Amino acid sequence: MSTSDCQPVEYITPAESEVVYNRRIGPGWYVLRLREESISRRSEPGMFVQVLCSEGEAFDPFLRRPFSVYSTDEENGTYDILYTTVGRGTRWMAALPDPETSGSGEPPARVDVLGPLGNTFTMPGKDESVYLVGGGVGVAPLYFLALRLLELPDPPDIHFCMGARTGKFLQGIEDFRQLPIHTHVATNDGSEGFHGFVTDLFLDLWKEGEGAGKARVYGCGPQGMNESLRNLSVDNDLTCEICLESIMACGFGICFGCVAPIRKDPASDFINRRICCEGPVFDSNLLCPGIDG
Domain residues for 237? Predict the structure, then answer.
Protein backbone atom coordinates (compact mmCIF):
# COMPACT_ATOMS: atom_id res chain seq x y z
CA MET A 1 0.00 0.00 0.00
CA SER A 2 1.33 3.44 -0.87
CA THR A 3 2.33 5.73 2.00
CA SER A 4 0.95 8.71 0.07
CA ASP A 5 -2.69 7.68 -0.26
CA CYS A 6 -5.51 8.08 2.25
CA GLN A 7 -7.77 5.16 2.94
CA PRO A 8 -11.04 4.69 1.01
CA VAL A 9 -14.18 6.10 2.62
CA GLU A 10 -15.50 2.59 3.29
CA TYR A 11 -12.70 2.12 5.82
CA ILE A 12 -13.94 4.93 8.06
CA THR A 13 -17.42 3.74 8.94
CA PRO A 14 -17.98 3.70 12.73
CA ALA A 15 -18.97 0.36 14.20
CA GLU A 16 -19.82 -0.93 17.66
CA SER A 17 -17.32 -3.46 18.95
CA GLU A 18 -18.21 -5.90 21.71
CA VAL A 19 -15.82 -6.22 24.66
CA VAL A 20 -14.57 -9.82 24.84
CA TYR A 21 -12.10 -9.17 27.64
CA ASN A 22 -10.19 -6.29 29.20
CA ARG A 23 -7.10 -7.73 30.82
CA ARG A 24 -4.47 -5.99 32.99
CA ILE A 25 -1.00 -7.23 32.04
CA GLY A 26 1.16 -4.94 34.17
CA PRO A 27 1.24 -1.65 36.09
CA GLY A 28 -1.21 0.50 34.14
CA TRP A 29 -1.03 -1.74 31.04
CA TYR A 30 -3.98 -3.55 29.48
CA VAL A 31 -5.00 -5.66 26.49
CA LEU A 32 -8.55 -4.96 25.32
CA ARG A 33 -10.06 -7.60 23.05
CA LEU A 34 -13.00 -6.45 20.92
CA ARG A 35 -15.26 -8.31 18.51
CA GLU A 36 -16.21 -6.65 15.21
CA GLU A 37 -15.74 -8.76 12.11
CA SER A 38 -15.07 -6.05 9.54
CA ILE A 39 -12.34 -4.39 11.63
CA SER A 40 -10.76 -7.76 12.36
CA ARG A 41 -10.84 -8.78 8.70
CA ARG A 42 -9.43 -5.55 7.25
CA SER A 43 -6.76 -4.69 9.80
CA GLU A 44 -3.10 -4.96 8.81
CA PRO A 45 0.09 -4.25 10.82
CA GLY A 46 0.56 -0.51 11.27
CA MET A 47 -3.12 0.32 10.98
CA PHE A 48 -4.98 1.80 13.92
CA VAL A 49 -8.49 2.39 15.24
CA GLN A 50 -10.08 5.48 16.79
CA VAL A 51 -11.95 4.69 20.02
CA LEU A 52 -14.74 6.90 21.38
CA CYS A 53 -13.97 6.82 25.10
CA SER A 54 -17.40 7.85 26.35
CA GLU A 55 -20.93 6.47 26.43
CA GLY A 56 -24.26 7.66 25.19
CA GLU A 57 -24.36 11.42 24.72
CA ALA A 58 -21.67 12.25 27.26
CA PHE A 59 -19.00 13.23 24.69
CA ASP A 60 -16.40 13.63 27.43
CA PRO A 61 -13.70 13.27 26.34
CA PHE A 62 -14.93 14.62 23.02
CA LEU A 63 -12.17 13.39 20.69
CA ARG A 64 -11.55 9.76 19.87
CA ARG A 65 -8.27 8.15 20.93
CA PRO A 66 -6.02 6.34 18.40
CA PHE A 67 -4.68 2.85 19.12
CA SER A 68 -2.60 0.53 16.94
CA VAL A 69 -4.09 -2.88 16.30
CA TYR A 70 -2.10 -5.40 18.37
CA SER A 71 -3.39 -8.59 16.74
CA THR A 72 -6.48 -10.07 15.10
CA ASP A 73 -8.35 -13.35 15.06
CA GLU A 74 -10.36 -13.35 11.85
CA GLU A 75 -11.96 -16.71 12.62
CA ASN A 76 -13.57 -15.29 15.75
CA GLY A 77 -13.92 -11.73 14.39
CA THR A 78 -11.84 -10.17 17.16
CA TYR A 79 -8.97 -7.70 17.40
CA ASP A 80 -6.78 -6.61 20.29
CA ILE A 81 -5.60 -3.21 21.52
CA LEU A 82 -2.58 -2.76 23.79
CA TYR A 83 -2.89 0.40 25.89
CA THR A 84 -1.61 2.09 29.01
CA THR A 85 -3.61 4.43 31.27
CA VAL A 86 -2.39 8.00 30.79
CA GLY A 87 -5.53 10.16 30.83
CA ARG A 88 -9.34 10.29 30.95
CA GLY A 89 -9.82 8.25 27.77
CA THR A 90 -7.64 5.31 28.72
CA ARG A 91 -8.89 5.36 32.33
CA TRP A 92 -12.42 5.00 30.88
CA MET A 93 -11.21 2.04 28.85
CA ALA A 94 -9.57 0.44 31.87
CA ALA A 95 -12.92 0.63 33.69
CA LEU A 96 -14.75 -1.33 30.97
CA PRO A 97 -16.07 -4.54 32.55
CA ASP A 98 -14.35 -7.78 31.59
CA PRO A 99 -17.09 -10.34 30.79
CA GLU A 100 -14.72 -13.18 31.71
CA THR A 101 -14.21 -11.97 35.28
CA SER A 102 -17.11 -9.63 36.18
CA GLY A 103 -19.67 -12.41 36.69
CA SER A 104 -22.45 -9.82 36.58
CA GLY A 105 -24.57 -11.58 33.98
CA GLU A 106 -24.96 -8.27 32.13
CA PRO A 107 -24.53 -8.16 28.34
CA PRO A 108 -20.95 -7.38 27.25
CA ALA A 109 -20.07 -3.69 26.99
CA ARG A 110 -19.91 -2.18 23.53
CA VAL A 111 -17.46 0.44 22.29
CA ASP A 112 -17.84 2.85 19.36
CA VAL A 113 -14.79 2.32 17.13
CA LEU A 114 -13.70 3.88 13.84
CA GLY A 115 -11.33 1.88 11.64
CA PRO A 116 -9.15 0.35 10.57
CA LEU A 117 -7.30 3.48 9.46
CA GLY A 118 -3.89 4.29 8.01
CA ASN A 119 -1.46 2.29 5.91
CA THR A 120 0.67 -0.76 6.57
CA PHE A 121 4.26 -1.98 6.46
CA THR A 122 5.97 -3.28 3.33
CA MET A 123 6.78 -6.96 3.51
CA PRO A 124 10.50 -7.89 3.39
CA GLY A 125 12.16 -9.21 0.27
CA LYS A 126 13.56 -12.71 -0.14
CA ASP A 127 16.59 -13.48 2.05
CA GLU A 128 16.19 -10.25 4.06
CA SER A 129 16.59 -10.56 7.80
CA VAL A 130 14.16 -8.47 9.86
CA TYR A 131 14.75 -6.22 12.86
CA LEU A 132 11.78 -4.91 14.83
CA VAL A 133 12.67 -2.00 17.14
CA GLY A 134 10.06 -0.78 19.59
CA GLY A 135 9.32 0.89 22.88
CA GLY A 136 6.23 1.57 24.98
CA VAL A 137 2.90 0.99 23.25
CA GLY A 138 4.87 1.27 20.00
CA VAL A 139 5.44 -2.47 20.28
CA ALA A 140 1.77 -3.07 19.35
CA PRO A 141 2.06 -2.77 15.53
CA LEU A 142 5.37 -4.65 15.65
CA TYR A 143 3.77 -7.63 17.38
CA PHE A 144 1.05 -7.70 14.73
CA LEU A 145 3.76 -7.47 12.05
CA ALA A 146 5.71 -10.34 13.62
CA LEU A 147 2.60 -12.53 13.49
CA ARG A 148 2.07 -11.68 9.81
CA LEU A 149 5.73 -12.37 8.96
CA LEU A 150 5.55 -15.77 10.62
CA GLU A 151 2.57 -16.64 8.40
CA LEU A 152 4.67 -16.24 5.25
CA PRO A 153 5.55 -19.46 3.36
CA ASP A 154 9.24 -18.83 4.09
CA PRO A 155 9.38 -16.64 7.22
CA PRO A 156 12.45 -14.39 7.60
CA ASP A 157 14.88 -14.46 10.48
CA ILE A 158 13.32 -11.98 12.94
CA HIS A 159 15.03 -10.04 15.73
CA PHE A 160 12.81 -8.03 18.07
CA CYS A 161 14.42 -5.31 20.18
CA MET A 162 12.31 -3.73 22.93
CA GLY A 163 13.37 -0.76 25.02
CA ALA A 164 12.07 0.66 28.30
CA ARG A 165 13.20 2.92 31.12
CA THR A 166 13.32 -0.03 33.51
CA GLY A 167 12.48 -3.72 33.50
CA LYS A 168 8.99 -3.37 34.95
CA PHE A 169 7.92 -1.37 31.89
CA LEU A 170 8.72 -4.14 29.42
CA GLN A 171 5.00 -4.83 29.07
CA GLY A 172 4.05 -7.23 26.29
CA ILE A 173 7.52 -8.76 26.12
CA GLU A 174 6.21 -12.20 27.13
CA ASP A 175 3.96 -12.26 24.04
CA PHE A 176 7.03 -11.78 21.85
CA ARG A 177 9.00 -14.39 23.79
CA GLN A 178 6.37 -16.98 22.95
CA LEU A 179 7.00 -16.49 19.22
CA PRO A 180 9.75 -18.31 17.27
CA ILE A 181 11.86 -15.15 16.94
CA HIS A 182 14.97 -13.69 18.58
CA THR A 183 13.94 -11.40 21.44
CA HIS A 184 16.25 -8.77 22.96
CA VAL A 185 15.58 -6.09 25.56
CA ALA A 186 17.28 -2.86 26.59
CA THR A 187 16.64 -0.77 29.69
CA ASN A 188 17.93 2.70 30.42
CA ASP A 189 18.84 1.74 33.98
CA GLY A 190 20.31 -1.67 33.12
CA SER A 191 17.78 -3.52 35.29
CA GLU A 192 17.18 -6.04 32.48
CA GLY A 193 19.04 -6.90 29.30
CA PHE A 194 21.24 -4.39 27.51
CA HIS A 195 22.13 -1.29 29.55
CA GLY A 196 21.29 1.66 27.32
CA PHE A 197 19.01 2.75 24.50
CA VAL A 198 17.23 0.17 22.38
CA THR A 199 18.57 1.77 19.19
CA ASP A 200 22.13 1.16 20.42
CA LEU A 201 21.20 -2.47 21.11
CA PHE A 202 19.77 -2.79 17.61
CA LEU A 203 22.87 -1.24 16.01
CA ASP A 204 25.14 -3.70 17.84
CA LEU A 205 23.01 -6.67 16.76
CA TRP A 206 22.86 -5.47 13.15
CA LYS A 207 26.63 -5.00 12.99
CA GLU A 208 27.15 -8.50 14.39
CA GLY A 209 24.95 -10.00 11.67
CA GLU A 210 25.87 -7.61 8.88
CA GLY A 211 27.53 -10.30 6.80
CA ALA A 212 24.49 -12.57 6.87
CA GLY A 213 22.66 -10.72 4.07
CA LYS A 214 20.32 -7.79 3.60
CA ALA A 215 18.35 -6.40 6.52
CA ARG A 216 15.01 -4.63 6.74
CA VAL A 217 14.16 -2.57 9.80
CA TYR A 218 10.75 -1.68 11.23
CA GLY A 219 10.27 0.65 14.18
CA CYS A 220 7.66 2.26 16.40
CA GLY A 221 8.07 3.98 19.71
CA PRO A 222 8.41 7.32 21.50
CA GLN A 223 9.56 10.31 19.45
CA GLY A 224 13.16 10.16 20.73
CA MET A 225 13.48 6.50 19.77
CA ASN A 226 11.94 7.12 16.35
CA GLU A 227 14.33 10.02 15.71
CA SER A 228 17.36 7.92 16.70
CA LEU A 229 16.24 4.99 14.54
CA ARG A 230 15.61 7.32 11.60
CA ASN A 231 19.09 8.84 11.89
CA LEU A 232 21.04 5.62 12.20
CA SER A 233 19.09 3.92 9.40
CA VAL A 234 19.80 6.85 7.05
CA ASP A 235 23.46 7.04 8.13
CA ASN A 236 23.94 3.30 7.54
CA ASP A 237 21.85 3.14 4.34
CA LEU A 238 19.39 0.70 5.90
CA THR A 239 15.93 -0.04 4.51
CA CYS A 240 13.70 1.11 7.34
CA GLU A 241 10.04 1.95 7.91
CA ILE A 242 8.86 3.76 11.02
CA CYS A 243 5.30 3.84 12.33
CA LEU A 244 4.80 7.29 13.84
CA GLU A 245 2.72 8.02 16.91
CA SER A 246 0.64 11.19 17.07
CA ILE A 247 -2.37 12.77 18.75
CA MET A 248 -5.15 12.55 16.15
CA ALA A 249 -8.48 14.34 16.20
CA CYS A 250 -10.24 12.67 13.28
CA GLY A 251 -7.91 9.86 12.18
CA PHE A 252 -8.74 10.02 8.47
CA GLY A 253 -7.20 13.25 7.19
CA ILE A 254 -9.95 15.84 7.36
CA CYS A 255 -8.75 17.94 10.31
CA PHE A 256 -5.03 18.23 9.47
CA GLY A 257 -4.27 18.02 13.19
CA CYS A 258 -1.44 15.49 12.92
CA VAL A 259 0.75 16.96 10.18
CA ALA A 260 4.53 16.68 10.19
CA PRO A 261 7.25 17.68 7.69
CA ILE A 262 7.68 14.56 5.55
CA ARG A 263 8.90 14.21 1.97
CA LYS A 264 6.82 12.64 -0.81
CA ASP A 265 10.03 11.06 -2.17
CA PRO A 266 13.72 11.27 -1.18
CA ALA A 267 14.44 13.97 -3.80
CA SER A 268 11.58 16.32 -2.87
CA ASP A 269 11.31 19.05 -0.24
CA PHE A 270 9.70 18.53 3.15
CA ILE A 271 5.99 19.31 3.20
CA ASN A 272 3.32 18.94 5.87
CA ARG A 273 1.78 15.49 5.48
CA ARG A 274 -0.93 13.85 7.54
CA ILE A 275 0.37 11.05 9.75
CA CYS A 276 -3.09 9.50 10.09
CA CYS A 277 -3.92 8.81 6.45
CA GLU A 278 -0.67 9.26 4.52
CA GLY A 279 0.95 7.13 7.21
CA PRO A 280 1.38 6.28 9.99
CA VAL A 281 4.06 4.11 8.35
CA PHE A 282 6.77 6.04 6.47
CA ASP A 283 10.09 5.20 4.85
CA SER A 284 12.78 6.60 7.16
CA ASN A 285 14.38 8.43 4.21
CA LEU A 286 11.27 10.59 3.95
CA LEU A 287 11.33 11.76 7.56
CA CYS A 288 13.07 14.93 8.66
CA PRO A 289 15.87 14.56 11.24
CA GLY A 290 13.56 15.88 13.99
CA ILE A 291 10.57 13.82 12.68
CA ASP A 292 8.02 16.20 14.18
CA GLY A 293 9.97 19.22 12.96
Answer: 129-243
